Amino acid sequence: MYTTIDGDTWDIIAKKVYGEEQKADFLMKNNRKLLDKLVFQSGVVLETPPLPIEKSTLLPDWR
What we know:
Largest sheet: 2 strands, antiparallel
Shape: elongated
Strand content: 5-15%
Mean pLDDT: 92
Number of strands: 2
């Protein structure tokens, strides 16, 4: 869970929680009821589930 502060945006929260702004889409998918927000006020609680394990692209699928 993450509680917003004034001025937080999806990409800022993703950077704080997951270390990458590009994870904002994952964050948004898990907080659909808040998609109408672009800039948050303080006190909004977001779900921040762990990221799914990504498959390595260094090995072929059969490995």
